[in-house]
Automatic annotation (TrEMBL):
Residue positions binding [4Fe-4S] cluster: 113, 117, 120
Record-annotated Radical SAM core domain positions: 99-314
Superkingdom field: Bacteria
Keyword annotations of the record: 4Fe-4S, Iron, Iron-sulfur, Isomerase, Metal-binding, Pyridoxal phosphate, S-adenosyl-L-methionine
Family to which the UniProt record says this protein belongs: Belongs to the radical SAM superfamily. KamA family.
Residue numbers carrying N6-(pyridoxal phosphate)lysine: 325
Entries under Pfam families matching the protein: Radical_SAM
Reactions performed catalytically: L-lysine = D-beta-lysine
Source organism of the structure: Moraxella caprae
Name assigned to this protein: L-lysine 2,3-aminomutase
MF-aspect GO terms: 4 iron, 4 sulfur cluster binding; isomerase activity; metal ion binding
Amino acid sequence: MNDIFFNQPNWQKELSNAISDVASLYELLELPLPNEFHAPTKFPLRVPHAFIQKMKKGDPNDPLLRQILPDIAESLPVAGYTADPLDENTHNPIKGLLHKYQSRALITVTGACAVHCRYCFRQHFDYGANLPNSQDIRQICHYIANDKNINEVLLSGGDPLNINNRRFNEWIGALSDIDNIKTIRIHTRLPAILPNRIDDEFIDILAYCPKNIVMVLHINHANEIDNALAQKCQTLKKHGVVLLNQSVLLKGVNDNVEILCQLSHALFDIGVLPYYLHILDKVAGSAHFDLPIDRAIQIYWQLLEKLSGYLVPKLVQEVAGKPYKVPIDIYKNC
Ligand SMILES: *Cc1c(COP(=O)(O)O)cnc(C)c1O
Ligand code: SF4
């Protein structure tokens, strides 16, 4: 008998059953397979069934499908779009640690994600060279404990919920011992991609953690929100987790005021407040998702007009070398 097999939680089974073959995806969505399609071997298609189920069958322009379907345009070089647009490799004091902003340190606990978002700014990041082992974990905690300016740690990746509960608990335990840390923040797309990831054991880990816990979800479109996610958010909130959301402004996905208003309302309905709306990072392979900054600003003014103040995310952009996420100057053309 193989205990490990029988004890494997459902979400891990769902993760290993993720679709990685373009033809199967078209079939599941009842779409005719085009003569030519893109099937990259580096950063290939990856999407779990739970996310596919939220897509509309027979719609090649489904906003969820567009986020994960490899596009031939990815392989064409575009001037100004590079592998490391944020110059992250220069803020990497220890393997697995990014320290760019004074009071926050970011840990890349894994390079793996449940889904491969085609616009991802970390798609070229060298995770292999950057994954912390047990010794690195001690070094990272030592670094953080020695810099009293740091009061918050971000668990990121990849997706920090891609690791199992035992390893996740190791991180939470180690960080909980650091006095200057007030808040542990988890940046994750997994709840929207695979709601079952938020299992009872995981909830317990957060519930017993003595630090403030903030979870920043990554949802770009209201269609990503369903009952399964709503229930998980309710449970998280019941245990004191603060829920926020960040989105990326993406052409053909959410570059429209109605869609963004729907998103803010749908988030609020499940107890999540909009935090950031990011201008796309200019990473190689993502140019076809970008829109002119003036168009982004125009959409933003419309959002201000339509939404309650607390439902308007901050429009920001990451600029290499800046010690914060840079607010977009919306008065530029006024
Ligand atoms: C985005 C980010 C943070 C967090 O920034 P906030 O403005 O506090 O959300 C911290 N460190 C790094 C490296 C980041 O990219
Ligand atoms: S979940 Fe986040 S880190 Fe992972 S591929 Fe998507 S955008 Fe990138």
